[in-house]
Amino acid sequence: MQTLFSIRRCLVITTAGVLALAACDAFAARVSRLTPPSELFASGEADPVIARFLPGQLFDLQATVQPDAGQTITNFAFYVDNSPVTNRNAETMARTSIVTETGPTDTCIDASGKTTGASGCKLAANLPSNTAVVSQRAYSKSLPGVHTFKVVAAQGNGSLISATGNFEVVGIDRGGATAKNIIILLGDGMGAAHRTAGRIMAKGYTQGKAKGRLAMDTFPYGGMVMTASLNSIVTDSAPGMQNYVSGNKANNNQEGVFPDDTLDAFDNPRVEYLSEYLHMLQGKSLGVVTTADVFDATPAANAVHTSARGNGTGIVDQFLDDRDRTGLTVLMGGGRKWFLPNASNSVSPQPANGSQRRSANDYVLPDDVVNGWDAARGELDPERDLIGDFQAAGFAYAPDKTALDAAFVGRVPSKLLGLFAYSNMNVSYDKINARRGDSTVVDAFGFPDQPMLDEMTDKALQVLSKNPNGFVAMIEGASIDKQAHLMDSDRWVLEVLEFDRAVAVAKSFAERHPDTLVIVTADHECSGAAIIGASTATAAELEATPNAGKTVVGTYDAAGFPKYTIGDDGFPSTLQIDHKLLIGYGANADRWETWMPNAFPTKDTQQPFPPAESPADPTVRNEDVGYLVTGQVPGDQAVHTATDIPLSAVGRGASLFHGVFDNTDVFFMLGQAAVGGSH
Ligand SMILES: [Zn+2]
Prior knowledge:
Blueprint: E1 9-13, E2 19-23, E3 30-35, H1 39-42, E4 52-53, E5 59-66, E6 73-80, E7 83-84, E8 96-102, E9 105-110, E10 132-139, E11 145-155, E12 160-169, E13 181-187, H2 192-203, E14 205-206, E15 209-210, E16 221-226, H3 237-246, H4 274-282, E17 285-293, H5 297-300, H6 312-321, H7 323-326, E18 328-334, H8 367-373, H9 386-392, E19 396-398, H10 401-406, E20 416-419, H11 428-435, H12 441-445, H13 453-464, E21 471-477, H14 479-485, H15 489-512, E22 516-521, E23 525-526, E24 529-535, H16 539-544, E25 553-554, E26 581-585, E27 591-593, E28 627-629, E29 640-641, E30 645-651, E31 658-662, H17 663-676
Parallel strand pairs: 4-12, 13-21, 13-22, 16-31, 17-18, 17-21, 18-20, 19-20
Antiparallel strand pairs: 1-2, 3-5, 5-10, 6-7, 6-11, 8-9, 8-10, 11-12, 14-15, 16-30, 22-30, 23-29, 24-25, 24-26, 27-28
Helix pairs in contact: 2-15, 3-17, 13-15, 14-15
């Protein structure tokens, strides 16, 4: 916190014409933000270089410039290595723009000074008046090495304001055997403990030896990943994913963009995704498959550029409307609520068709983004029938597993959209129980016929492999994270098993197509999960004493080796075994623990029609029935942690992955494998 003495005070005339005291700093001309982010700008240190790009990868240059009191910014230019960056020169396909706030009317002014009136001009309220955000869209540089860049802005009185930063272009070694296909399997929130728990349950141990390996355990290469985002040691899923596929750090909640000072969530400075880079360079397709709502952070952070991961309507629109930039060919998961027309533009009361489309989380892009990136402008269109628009664009549509299977009878569709729930799909515990005929959970959610992740993966790879130029596929096991947040141990361990069955499908594909690279990783750890041991009680004893708490936690020798029986469907025939696996949490909120499976999943607030049977959250689930375990984080859910997570790799280029590396390093390894190849 600043003290009174640390702020210089000045007399100024306010817009109301009165004399007032204000902080002088706010009225001293300066560049308050320079993008891409650099330590050279932030602290004057040239090292470490924060922003890195592949040769030719597009990104926006942007600066927030605060003029002296009473002055306005009248002109600006960006320089890279002291050469001016000009429109449409040999190395850029950029346009320039100037965005200023001029009192009550926002205006966008392009480089020629004419007002365009597009949206996206409103600046953050804490900025002094006449602050300008100046942009050079869709710049790129091919020459490897560290480059300096500079913004120079002129104010009306002719004085200049400038600032300098740096970025690096990471070169690609040529001449190796390239990876035509890249499959990224993303177990959301899957730390080392989640993987180990999955192995113990699925394979069992005897006399200290694992009786088998998960598919992901069999990958020959791998390492540990540092997962921090641009603004925190603890990332959320948006930068957690986008850092892998852009090579750069984003702020929490942001995907495919750098932070900025405008309020528009879709006009942030962009960085090109792996999908866009390889679609433009090599004609590859993009496939996105998830057990979450498809608008969720992990799927969106492969194709959609926004600073607000919650803006569902705009996010799903951009998936379709910018498919020519990303090569989007397959999109599968939940999230139908964003695709259904909402004539009332309101979700209270909830429209009967389940739609949650709204203008408030949609977008219209300003001219400079549209022109610089050749992006679709977008439209505020809650009434849009987005499923119909996908179909008109050539996508086969599957609303359930039966329709998904039918779409592949006698042919393989060229493009595929699958939306199997209003929001997040049900988890494997409930889907498998339904297939076994002993659960009504999926019926209560209204979607009794949902595919498993391995089934979606198989279909996605069939469609994507029709492209002779190859593909990028991101396949997410989303509810490892979601159920770990809820500290529903049995449900997330089963999510690891469902995810690993998808890993096996991808591994088999790579064996049949040796020019394929497969990596399995997570975006971050979730919940500080720890395998604390096994129950000393039988299933019947746990059922009889759900508040047994610590008295039944067998540690060390008393844990022994929990033994589950695996059914033909690949999942335990029951979780209520004697001496079951027990999980503790190091990043937890309060919870009532019974050590027993919860009959109903805990409430998912994303669902337009959440079933009444779902407990509200872990602080009330089994309240007064179980044993109260108090946590050390606020709120009612466990949180992500900063712990490094494992990454495993197999196939063409897998040997590039070894040691301990940053999540942004993964992007450059993927780029090397796809463009330069490996030896
Ligand atoms: Zn999470």
